[in-house]
Amino acid sequence: MKASALDLRYRMSEVLKALERRERVSLLYHGKVKGAIVPIGRKGTVPTPDHPFFGMGVPGEDSVTAVMDRLRGGRYR
Length: 77
Description:
Blueprint: E1 2-4, H1 5-10, H2 12-20, E2 25-29, E3 32-37, H3 64-72
């Protein structure tokens, strides 16, 4: 299915029905594809990518502030 920003605003129910049918929805802006909305996995979970930001709140790990400081680095690094 293809949908413009206007379709998302006024016909969101149709977009959601397309996602329920496991269709991929292409987002258009001025007639060109700018992105996509894809249905989630069958179990209802979204796969988590291997990125340092995921799992920052896990107990026993560094604090969120410490992780962010390490990822950002210092001004003179």
